[in-house]
Here is the input.
Amino acid sequence: MRTAASTIAFAIPGCIIYCIVHLAFWPAQMSPDSLDQWQQLLTWQFNDTQPVSGTLLNWMFYQAVPSPAFIVFVHYVLFALATGYVLSELRCWGVAPSLLVACAILFPLFPPNFLVVTTMWKDVPFATALIALMALLIKSVRLDFKLSASEWASIGAAGIALVLLRHNGVIVSVGIFLLLATVKSARRPAAVLAGLQVAAFILSKTLLLSALSASPQSGEMRTIVALPMLAAAVREDVQLSPEQDQTIRAIAPIEAWKSVPCWNVVTFFFDDPRVSHAALEPHRVFATAAQIAFQHPLVALRQELCMTELFWRPWPHRAKQMADVPLEITQTPLAHELNLTTQSKLPALADWLNWFNGRYFGGRAPMKRPALYLLAGIIAAVRLMMIAKRLMWLAWLPAGLNCVSLLFLIQAQEYRMVWPSVAASVLLAVFAIGMEAKHRQRTSAQPTQEPIAQLG
Here is the structure.
């Protein structure tokens, strides 16, 4: 009961801040992906381009109140509660209450947080599950993995949520449990839970799709992750075999390929009229990309370093622009068909946030880049291993494996893809700061205690 009460108390500031921002973008920020999910839950015609299980979750919320505003409201309340649960767990580690209260207020004011959680994206419940799993792993380390069946079930449920909510979730979740299985005291339950994550993934892509008569993600859509390698080969004028050249030219003319920047293939895939989507045959496209990467490893390395700069480079390079939140209901033909428009309840705040968003995401300072916070998370985990418990590397796994899973899947500089890891890394940094203060206080107190012990 004490944990539940403190979780709710720590969540309240976040709920208030997110609600105020939500009112500015009422009923919700919605991108084309959001609109696609909204149409699916209205028509009950599902496809797995956006994971069907995530769309079903939104449909459940829709049954309570049929509005995108309510879906977004539930998303950020759950996110705030997950954050509150982390802070409640840090309290059990002895982190100073003043630091926890400050974090409860300042964490929601971190711009990516209040901007992303008010957008109807699958990334928000995914981040909620990721942060909850991080908190459960921190708790498990504190208890030396002497956990009840219900506590193991909670850990497994958080992992399954990752699997169901985003396509890369299965890599994150299975990876966490396989690495957790290397810990002697957690080996058997972690191995069982790893198997359950795989089973959940298979069932969600077979029985669930069949039960809903949902179409799987198209082969054409899957090929988007291979296109950056083909574009890199054209840009760098590598020597192509006749078959590779034929595959590339069938998709788009060489001039079109040369215009594709190394950090964004999304615009080319969706908006360039020169692209022949009928030629995006998965086996052929993936085979060609794999051959080019194997034959020209330096070209492949340069391409990957460019596409993943969001993860590791604190300063933006050249004209690269991060894709950020829509700040409105994106006005597409589908939005007009669904009769969705932004109806701000706080227009002055909306105008200011539009200005601020451009300054923040368009800025070049390291404080505005994900890489700085991801690095802080790594440093925090290492320091926690030194001053708290050796197994604290487990706390970093959700954030770290989310980034690892995106290395070959990310197709543009989209902040929202890496944002769950950024949010988790910020909380890890707070944990490390709190434990560092506790460690120094304990160390400084030791010399004064020794003479007293001698007198006794």
